[in-house]
From TrEMBL:
<dbReference type="InterPro" id="IPR050464">
    <property type="entry name" value="Zeta_carotene_desat/Oxidored"/>
</dbReference>
<dbReference type="InterPro" id="IPR029058">
    <property type="entry name" value="AB_hydrolase_fold"/>
</dbReference>
<feature type="domain" description="Alpha/beta hydrolase fold-3">
    <location>
        <begin position="598"/>
        <end position="837"/>
    </location>
</feature>
<dbReference type="GO" id="GO:0016491">
    <property type="term" value="F:oxidoreductase activity"/>
</dbReference>
<dbReference type="GO" id="GO:0016787">
    <property type="term" value="F:hydrolase activity"/>
</dbReference>
<dbReference type="Pfam" id="PF01593">
    <property type="entry name" value="Amino_oxidase"/>
</dbReference>
<protein>
    <submittedName>
        <fullName>Uncharacterized protein</fullName>
    </submittedName>
</protein>
<dbReference type="Pfam" id="PF07859">
    <property type="entry name" value="Abhydrolase_3"/>
</dbReference>
<feature type="domain" description="Amine oxidase">
    <location>
        <begin position="21"/>
        <end position="457"/>
    </location>
</feature>
<dbReference type="InterPro" id="IPR013094">
    <property type="entry name" value="AB_hydrolase_3"/>
</dbReference>
<dbReference type="InterPro" id="IPR036188">
    <property type="entry name" value="FAD/NAD-bd_sf"/>
</dbReference>
<dbReference type="InterPro" id="IPR002937">
    <property type="entry name" value="Amino_oxidase"/>
</dbReference>
Amino acid sequence: LNMTTRHSRPPKRVAIVGGGISGIACLWGLRDSDYEVHLYEADGRLGGHANSVPFRGNGTVRDVDTGFVILNEESYPHFSAFIKAHGVETIATDMSFSVSDSDGFRQWGSASFWSFVGCFSNLFRPWFWRLVFDIVRFNYFATDILHEKPERGKSDELESIGEYLTRQQYSPQFKRYYLIPMVAAPWCLDPEEAARTFPAETLIRFMSKHHLLDTLTHKLQWRSFSNGSKTYIDAFVRGLPKEHHLHLGIAVQRITRNPDSCVSIITGTGVVESFDHVVLAVHAKIALQMLGDEVSAEEDDVLGAFETSRTVCVLHSDETVLPKRPSARVSWNCILRSPRSCRDDFHSVTRPPRMTSDGGGFSVTYDMNRLQAIPSPGEEGSPGRVLVTMNPMTAPCQARSWHLYHHPKITSKSVQALKRLHLLKSGGNVSFAGAWMGYGFHEDGFVAGLQVAKEIIGGDLRRLAEPQAYSRMASIDDQKKLVKRICQKYQNSPWLPLSQLQKATSLDTPARGGIWISRTTFSAPFNPAIRNVLFSVIHRLKKEYHHISPEEETPIADVGVEFIGPRSQVPDDAPEPDIPEEDKLRALLQECDNRLTILYAHGGGLYFSGPAQYRASSVRLARLTGARVASIKYRLAPSHTFPAPILDILIAYASLLYPPPGAPYPAIPANQIVLAGNSAGANLALGLMKFLLEMQKLPPLDATFDFHGQSVTLPLPAGLAIVSGWCDQCDSLPSWHCKGETDILNVLQPACMPGHPTDSIWPASPPREAPYCVAALLDHELVSPAAVEDWTGAPPMWFACGCEERGVDGNRVVASRAAKSGVSVVWNEYEGMPHEFPIFLGALPQTKHLLQLWAAACQSFSRGKVGAAAPKPVAVRWLMPDCKRVELGNPVDIAPLPFAEVKKKMKAYNATRPVWTGRLHEHKL
């Protein structure tokens, strides 16, 4: 009876506020509970200081860490177990350290003997030997302070490191050039503030614990993430159980304790949610702000003692920020303001808004080529010099991105408050977690989050840290379960009338962070010549049973477009600037020196969705390639039927080649344009490609037409790269009629399913079989690319599909026919993956893998040389769970059926399609 009662109750609801390391650890610690857990993070990503940023150079892209960079297994035992069990690999790294004056007069490094000496003349300078003496003395005697307590009073216990060094008569050079930089660097503090406020006993205990006082006898092996710390974030997200929910980009403003023992959170959008327990995994000051006037006296006393410092971080490749002498250039390079430098010049850094730091006259530059084993300049595969500078004293000339971090300050007040942390537990159903509960590092934050999870569910911290418990989504079965769950959820989603669906899925959303989005239009030409040439090709390709509507029924219209490109030197949460769209486009074009332009068409069955809903593809393509993406807002069925969407993408293509007078962008050569798209957008990209191929067959006079007053022809683009193409609009090939539990699509598109709700635009008037066109037209070559037999003359084509897609056979037919026509084809299929899985399953490794291949294909097309040999056609299957490569041979051989059988099936299936009127009894399927 008790068991029945227990399981009949609703699951306990827990909210975690903050998606940094403490929030992640707490969420993981609750993984085996039956609680419903929600994590809220104001930023659009998880990780906090674990922030990997793409660095592009020399045709390569590397994810570079800009916050949390290194760890070692001895000092980070719980966190090391976490990443190991998630299958995340780390690499041994060089943890050398150097300190230099900004003018290079005095400097030393730890990489080697001569790195430490700096220059030969230092061997004859007394100050240098006094520095050596004090280093040895400090390392040998400093721990005495930890054993003097019985003879010392409270005031001595809180003695600052600066006071300690003065009392012990250490030399100024030891203080300035050795110890204080070692304090300031990891905590990103101003050296003067560090000397004044950092408790000596706390520092020496930390240095002893981390073996910084016995580096000659106990050398730690430091490690880093070769592919960035985001690898552990991605692995963690893949393993989340279905009861755990992430709310990224949702800021929590207030916490309210309710009389019924529940706690309410109020988000920045005004949404109120109630929970049984709330964990504030944020900085102490932020927790105080969220509690507002409901904070208890104990909470105010303890939390108010913890402060943070602001740190400006810049990812760049400017070597002038490194020490002047090459021998002093190591992994961690600390630069001190020279006493001879003018203080006014010292802060002459041009920073983005809100990018002010508390660093004072001190900066640290990490050599990420060393720390992440990124090939150095001149080596094969090198993106160039990769540097990360904290609190730069002069603005790096080649800055790629700017970031703002907050680090916990360790002061006498915070050290005393740590002894009173137990008072926070009296808050009942509100808990606190953060790296500020320790030394401020990743391990401290991780343990704090686990500890809160332990307190909520009970248990032992050591059990929570067992490595084998971390392994989720690492097996094929785990991935298959996730795919099936997501697909069933999508298939069971309620249907909306098409007008409501279009409105809901066409909403624009503002951009955030390092991306430019400029919304504009390609102007419709006054002369209908472009429509005339399109219809001439449509008639050339029609069969005797195809009925083509008059041209006048397809009006020429302006075409909406989002220009997308990388935006540098802004924090990840930077809002979209409130400037005119033309100014955004101008800034985008100025920043993006890559001539490649990707003409992208979104998915949505040709009757719903818009560019903003497919930014998971378009924005990532822009970031990974460094190129401009022109994402088209084409007209939607059923109000706009074939060939209106193809006319829109055709106008967009012509507008890129031949901008109309007054256009705010330059002309793009055809060999720098790549056609791309998802699903229905891939259908349009293939349709445009087939149209352009037919244009090449026309006599020059017939292939020339007027476009905005110019006499133009349409050359072929550099290539085509599509994902999950809807190539068989007849839905006739074998894969369409599989069981379908592991795809998001049904045997019919929802708008054609019996029982779909009707509205003013659907069913059509007069009724027809499909939203896009009548059934008899579905096998036209510009409607269903799988009906195209000849692709001769096409530029390289790149395809990617999930093996579980209903439409995979249509894609195979197109790829096979193109390869048979002599086109250079690359075919990629992903084992176990459904239709458009990069949109719906962004956390899986297959998504990242596909996006990287997609971006690389677009880049390779635009770099192809005229007359160069085309790449060898290849077909590849990428296996679950980790994208192991299996060669399938030549794409010619991947077609599911002979082409004559394909055409026969398409025509026969069209004949069985019912006219859709919304009444159930008229449907045969």
